What we know:
Number of helices: 9
Distance between the termini: 60 Å
Low-confidence stretches: none
Shape: elongated
Strand content: under 5%
Mean pLDDT: 87
Radius of gyration: 19 Å
Structural class: mainly alpha
Number of strands: 0
Amino acid sequence: xxxxxxxxxxxxxxxxxxxxxxxxxxxxxxxxxxxxxxxxxxxxxxxxxxxxxxxxxxxxxxxxxxxxxxxxxxxxxxxxxxxxxxxxxxxxxxxxxxxxxxxxxxxxxxxxxxxxxxxxxxxxxxxxxxxxxxxxxxxxxxxxxxxxxxxxxxxxxxxxxxxxxxxxxxxxxxxxxxxxxxxxxx
Length: 186
């Protein structure tokens, strides 16, 4: 059984971890890979020792930030899956992905440099595709997407979206609208 002090310490530790992850995400997104651990600690309002206890290396911090960002994306996708109109839910899901990738472009570059890829981990990809499958099934039942549409199609759209944003190859919002048009029934 935990004591009130143990619970408070645990709560403080969780709050500190969240502040570190948010500060690191913002700094990496803005300034890139060269952000120093001391800058992250200062921005999060924690001591450098606290930061290193939680994240002994910059790579460990970057990996944790990437996982935190992925968890946020999955949570948002699950909320969007509950949309009354599944076609709108799918559109909002893809637009949300675009917003995250666009806003966190610098963070994606940092993750790729540190981890060799900015692709989400398998379990994150599977969770996102499970939400996409739910949206597709519901949209298909309403006749809003073609019978041939699969989660693989949505995955290709997300990969293309990431490339459009990364390479500044045009308006990513337009890309999403064009891709959504391709999902409609023939």
